[in-house]
Amino acid sequence: MLDTITSTTQLGYSERVFDYCNPHITLLSNKGVVHASQEHDYDKHARGIAWSNGQTRRVLTTRSDCHIMLAKEAGQPTQVFRNITL
Question: Are 80 and 25 in contact (CB under 8 A)?
Fold first, then answer.
C-alpha cells in the first residue's frame, strides 16, 4: 500500500495517506515556500490540540514555531514544546 501512496505523491504530499491515519497534529519542517507540497491545506487532516490560551492548533511548522519537541511518558498525554533552544 505504501508504494501506491508514494507513487501518487506530489513533492511529498499525498492526501490518500490521511485515509489511513487521523493525526491530532501535523508537523512540517519547512523554510519559505519553495515546494508545491508546502501550499497544501494540512489543517483539514488533523483533529487539533488545545493550547493553554484556548487556541486549537492543527499544524506546527519549523518556519513559524522554530524548534519543535514532542515528549511522551507512558500513560500520559503527549506534550508539545515549541520555540525550544537546542
Answer: yes
Could you list the residue range(s) of the whole structural domain that residue 73 is in?
22-82
Domain presence at residue 3: no
The string of pLDDT tens digits covering residues 35-80 is: 665 667 788 889 998 888 889 999 888 888 888 888 989 998 888 8
Distance CA 16, CA 66 (A): 28
CA 11/CA 28 separation, integer angstroms: 13
Q: What is the dihedral of CA 3, 38, 63, 77, to 10 degrees?
A: -50
How many domains in the chain? 1
Report pTM: 0.67
